[in-house]
Structure formats: structure tokens, C-alpha cells
């Protein structure tokens, strides 16, 4: 019934009858450009219906390609939501992220001093090639013997990555590249970043790993960011040693690369849940150290988002789920490797599927198409509000710890009792009775 | 002290005894009396074993003339003997040994008759102080010659040069200094450790096999089981044409040295190898156990047991468990219940952590053990466990580990393949433990070469398997323990090590902790014995708990052919390693260490059944019952245990 009403809305846009805030719509039309976990989540949400092709939608879970082609041409109604920001790549392209971070660091240094700026030193020394080739060479020569990693800026899932220690390697590669591509056109040369390779990664039983953490941004002005409690550590299948520099399997922990490794056993899985990792680290290093580590990781999320706050075109229709890749070194210092705009939502195992399903469900809770939230929540399911135009602190535990010390409202790698929390928090879906 | 003596081993040719007034119904069937059981005023059990067959002369004086004559016609059954000086120590010709059998009313009745015997049992039992002094001598003996002993000596000598030492009060001064420098604590911890592995209240005169296992049918079952394992190992050896052991050629040694830290990347062809046995084979052995004394097939009573284990041992029921482990009670704070993992610590948790830090700084084994009963905080667990187990990581420990490593590199054993296979089958497939694959190889391979493990066979009912090894010349043969540590790994063995990888980074530390865990607790899970922490007792305890507190469920499962023990056995054998989520498993093992007993494992197994009882009542086959209990990774150990132990009406 309401569907008919809605289709009577403006042409070319996703119309809907204006309803009172909080009353909730009984039917939400979504468009989904991906065929993985997200589709299941959307599909199974009560009262939601899928629209195909050019149908009108209320929520669009599109890929970045669709965004590029269509975003500027479409008019969006007040309530409509889309899962990317217009220029998301400011944070998710490797070269732009570094550019923004460097600029942000400079501003901080100027305005708030060195100490404040040093809090941004969580990304490895990086140069964009070919444009920064000369500064790169200078830096390269200043630290002989160190290892560098080359990554194409726009490709993902570990494609086109290699390691090198000698300038000769990279010169050969440049020649190779230009010869094979035939086109002499400057614009056609693929941009790469050369990054100082972290040579002392934290190893667990001799294996390298990185962390995948999910951060949801619902607004850039004012910045509102949520941190998901779950996440995982991805292990490299082979053992780490710097001597095997040609073996890229050792160095890359992307599951996408791992899958092509000759001894990859899909049954085995190469992931630990964040909870397990946090426990492992606590068992080895004690509470305080681990708490500091996770605080530093929080710092990475916040600083990196702040660095692009002014660059990203804020749009109330947009939200974005970022997949952060973090690497730890032996001194338990976290490093930001990259940020993904469309984190792999294809599940590699049942456990992984469950995690992603929960994550996406909670994302939709926060996007709140149904109007079930008040907007003042500090926690929705597995998401904790990390930044709301300023740091967010927990309400509980103050009496125990003394009021002078504020505890950040982040619980990465902590118990995720989302079901219980959601039950308390959310009004039942329209037409659904609370059990 | 009043003793109630119990006869629990039958007499040969009972008829002859009946002449002496022992004509009790049901005894005609029995064949030999060899020991008595007594209960002292504190309800501890002691067995008094009669040794008349061998110490004929002694017995002669003890028994009436008629019997004496009769006795002399019997042949000695066992050849081991402690005849010559028995008389001196035990005027009655008895030896005190440990016992754990259950007292059946019928047996008790018999026992009363024995008390009427002319034998004065009290005189043969050692009193408290004698027992203590024996223990003291034993411990002193064991500690002599250890590294600690020489270090203490060295410290004491160094003390002498200090000005504050006076000749008049030399002894006290040295003692005070040793105390101040922390050496006394180290000695205390070492003594505490010895007390743990010391065969309980045995007598030094008792032959060694009595400390291993007092019940003969258990001994026999264990011996037969060992024979089977060895046979299967030998046949695999001949089938595959692989020697039990061989020296590695030098290039191979080098290769192994190089990939020591990444043995998991190697994928040898292991398809030919199969685990020597799996838990379910072992279960069959336990199911087949029978006490020749208790053939009760005719007189099935209300108390009869529905379970698979058909021997009676004294296992604790819920009220007794409550008494034994009050710290698990509802009024005590528990890690695993009263903490929310990482949310700002609540009052109990922060207090508990505070105490934990104190315990660690005091370096007191006994305190750490007591503390562990309420759970160890994640950040302190590694230190606390090392403290409880009194494992150190001194240079000499590291050297020892390096020696073991060298042995692995020098020689290739057939059991190595079994270890590889086991790790590949279990830990490598585990969602969590896969990371530790390399550590597991290192620890397990070194473990198999460690002859120090052999020591634990003095109180383990198992006996290290022997195998003939040809001399280098090839002419002579000699029997050698094989594998060198005497432990043949079975399917799932590596899961004993896996949880410890979570706590210790350094392979040598990890190794020490594992070895100590093994020789204190884990060996009991795969050898047939009557020990309260032994696998037989645990299985029996599990079945009794279920039968007493969930009779409907037990009956239902039994009717559909899903004997609960068939499902729970694999959990018990591995002390739940690989079944629970890691944090929960460590909380459980905290309690094992804290309570110095594996009984809690049996209780948890029963509690799991209780927790899923509703679903289990609906299943109609073994497979579906197994499905209900397939995934334990979501269970919370401590609430389950507490509810089962302290909130069940008894």
C-alpha cells in the first residue's frame, strides 16, 4: 500500500511520502550493487524490498563505480541514503591518503606544536611515484639497506605489489612498465606509492599478521565516527623472514593474495577474531600495554578521518563503512597501512560470514532508515560511538576509576554482546512484536 | 584412631578360609585375599596388603595353626618380594599402601570380620609423624644434587664472608640471610613442587608398583593396553619398513636446523601413517574394565550403574565436591563470571588483579595455587602458572632445551611422524591454534627425546614401552625405552600443548611448562589407574553425576543408544582443549592447577549435559545427540560449573 504511494513521488528520484520523524516507514526500497553478505543482510531485513536496475530506492548499497557514474546526476530526497561519500578516494587511495595526512600533520605542527603533530606519525614514510621520485631517491639513499614496498595506488587486494632493496630494481621496473604499455602518454602511467617497509612486524609464532578494523562514518561535518568491536587479524600463511624478499606471500596478509599461495588451504582459514588477538596480547604483555596499544589504534582512526574532514564533500545522504588495515611492529606500535572504501564483504568462512553479517546489520541500524533511534546513542549493537565532533567517553566505570580520568568509548576487541544491547535499544520493527 | 578394615581383594581357595569363620555369602566366588582397606578417623583410606604367600614365615606366626598349614601349600603369585626386612618394620607382616576403592556394603561386612582377626592393624599403620618424616627424607633426597641445592650451598658459603655473620649464631644468621635474599622462598617452592608429585602417603618399603597403581586389575588392564599399543606401533614399523629410529645424515641435519622454526611449511607425505590410537579406542579399554571382586551381575540393585564404566571407585559426589572446592562457591568472586572481559574493571576484578600482582611479586607457589582457584587474570596467567608449576627459565633450562633440540636434529624417530600427523590433523585445522603449528612441533619433538619425563613413571600406572635396539655393531641387542620419554602420542596429544602456546612465547619456557603440566596432571588422562584424577575415576564421576542429578536425561540417552560417556570422553581425555574457546579453556585449567585435581573436568562434562538437557531430551539418535553437543565454543565454563555444583539441589 505504501509502496504505491511512494512510487507516486517525484520522477527520477526516490520519492516518499513525508512522514513524521521517528514514525518509521513500513517499506524500504533498496538497491544493491554487490552480490555477497550485504545482499543477504538487506534481503533478510524485515519490510525491505529490493529494486532492480533503475528503480527508485531509499537506500543504495552501490559500488564505487556506480557512484562515479551516477552520483552527480541524481537528485536525492531527504531520507535517501547511499553507502559512499562522493570523493571517498581522498582517504582510500593510497597516494591521496598520504597526501592528506602529510598536510594535516603540517597544519598541526604549525597550530599546535610538534608534540601534537608527532601523534600523526603512524604511517610509514611514503612517496608517490612517479611525481615524488626525486625526493624518494634522496630518502632512499639516506637509509641504505632498508626495504621498500611498491604499491599501485588504485588497485586493491594486494595486486601489483612488490618489495625491493636496490634502486636498480625500481629502475628496471620503470623501464619494463613503459615498454610494455606502449603508450608514452604521461597520464597513462600508473601511479605507485613507494613505502618504507616495516621490517620488524610483530610476529605470533613466527607469522606476520595485520588487523582489519571497521569504522563507520555517518557524517564529516561534524565528524561522527563509530568503531566496530569485532574485527580480525589476518595471518600470513608462510613464516616471516626478511631474507625471503621475493616471496610476496610472506609479506602480504591480504586474504586475496593468500588464496593464490600454493599451500593455501581454504579449510584452514588464516584469521583470528579481534577478541582472540586482544586476549593473546594481554596474556603476553599485560593489560596496561594492550590498553595503550588500542588507544593508539583509536588515535589512528580519528587522526586519519580528521585529516580528510575538510576535503571530503559532506553530504547528509552519505555514510561510509571503512576497512582499516593496521600493522603492529615489535614494539607494539600500530601503523596505518591503508583504508578501504569497499572492504571485502565476501566471507571466507562461516565465522567470517557471521561477523560480516553482524557488522552490516549494525551498520543498517545506525543508518536507521526505519527511524528507530534517538540520535543520542553511544552504542548501537557492536558499534561504539568513537567521535562525535570531539572524543566520546564512556558513562560507566567512572566511579571506580575516579572522575578525573575519562575512558574513551571504544571497545575494539571486547565482548560484543550486541544482541542484548540491541534488544534494549531498538524499538521492534514495524509490524513485529517484541518477544 | 579407629580403623575399619575392609577386605577388597579376594582370597585363593576361599573354602579354606571358611574354616576360620569367614563364611560369608558371595565370597565363595573369590579367589585370593591380598589386601585390606582401612579407614582412619579422618576418613582417609589406607590399604593394608597381606603378603602371606611370599612371606610365609611371617604369616605362620600370624595365623592359626590350621591356616598356616594350608597356606604353605600355595604358590607365590608375584615374584617381587620384600621379605627379609618386612618383619622388622611391620611386625604384622603388612605393608601400607594407598587405596581408592569404593566401599560396598557387602565389602564392608567382610571387613568387619577381618578386624576380628588377630592382626592389630593400628600397629602396622604409620602415624602422622612417621609418615611426615618419610616424606621429608624423600624430598630431601630428591632435592640433593639438584641445581637449586648447589646454588643454596654456594649462597650459604658466600654468606660466610659477610660481616654480619657471627660464629656463635652461625646457623641462624645464614638462615636469615637466605631468607632475606629470597632463597628460602625458592626452596619452599621446590619442596612444594616435590610434594605435588610425591606419591601420596606411600611407604618407602612398598614395592614401586604399588605407588604406581594399587589395584591389580587396573595394572593388568594397563599392561594389556600397552602391549596393544606397542604391537600396533611395531606392526606399522614393519609394514612401512621404517626403522623406529635412525641417525640423520649430515645434510638432512643441516636442513632440519635451518627450518627448525618453520617445520609446519614442510609437507611430508603422511598418508601412510595413522595415529597409534584414538580416544575412542582407549574408551573401549575402560569400558571393558572389571573388578574381579565385584561380579554383581546377579544382584543388580537400585544402586546399579547405568553407565559404561563398570568398576566401582570412590568418586566425589556434589556435596563432597562443595566441601573440597569451596572457592568455586557462589559467595566467592570468580574470574570468568564476575568480570566483563574488558569493560572498565569492576570492583572484584580490579581487587583480584591487585592481589594477583602481589602473589607474583611474592614468588610463592602455594599462594599462587590458592589464588588460581578463583581464576587468573589474562595478563598475569603466564607468570602465575609458571609459579604454581615452579618452572624456571634459568640458563640450565635453556641448555637442557637446546640439548633436546640437538637430539631431535641428530636422530629421526618413527614417532616424529606420528607427531607431525597429529598436529596436522588437530591443531593445524583449528581456527585458533593453527598459528602455533611450528611451536607444537618444536615442543613435542623435544618432549619425545626428554628422558627426564621417565621419572614420572614412578607414580604413573603406565610403564614406558621398551623396544629392542641393535647395537652399532649389529651383533648385540638391548632393550631401550622407546620413544626416549616413554610416551607414545595418540590422536589429539598435541592439544595438550596448544593452549599453553597462548601464554608463552619462548619455546624453552613453553616446553618446561608443558612438561610439568604433563607429569603432574595430563598423563592421568590416558593411563588406566584408580587415582581420583585418573581417567577411569573421571569417567565414573561424570556418569555418577549425570545419573544422580539428571536421571531422566541419562535414561533417555541410554535408551536411544547414546551413552553420554561416548560423547563426553573426547572432551575429558583432552581436558577440553580444542573444544572450548581459548579464554574459557584457560579459565578451566586455572581451576585444575588451583585445585590440583582434574575432577573439575568431569564436573564440567556433566554440567554441559545439564546445560543442553532440554535439547538432548528431544534427540532420538546418537548422531543427533552428538550434533547438539558438537559446538562447545560458546559455553561459559565458570557459570556452568557453579550452577551445577552449587545451585543444584542434592
Automatic annotation (TrEMBL), chain A:
Family: Belongs to the tubulin--tyrosine ligase family.
Keywords: ATP-binding, Ligase, Nucleotide-binding
Protein name, UniProt field: Tubulin--tyrosine ligase-like protein 9
InterPro entries in alphabetical order: TTL/TTLL_fam
Domain of life: Eukaryota
PANTHER family according to UniProt: TUBULIN POLYGLUTAMYLASE, TUBULIN POLYGLUTAMYLASE TTLL9-RELATED
Record keyword Ligase present: yes
GO molecular function: ATP binding; tubulin binding; tubulin-glutamic acid ligase activity
Swiss-Prot/TrEMBL GO biological process terms: microtubule cytoskeleton organization
Region: Disordered, residue numbers: 1-20
GO cellular component: ciliary basal body
Pfam family, one: TTL
From TrEMBL, chain B:
Alphabetical list of Pfam families matching this protein: RabGAP-TBC
InterPro entries, sorted: Rab-GAP-TBC_dom, Rab-GAP_TBC_sf, TBC1D19
Domain Rab-GAP TBC: 375-596
Descriptive protein name: TBC1 domain family, member 19
Family matches, as PANTHER family: TBC1 DOMAIN FAMILY MEMBER 19
PROSITE patterns tied to this protein: TBC_RABGAP
Domain of life: Eukaryota
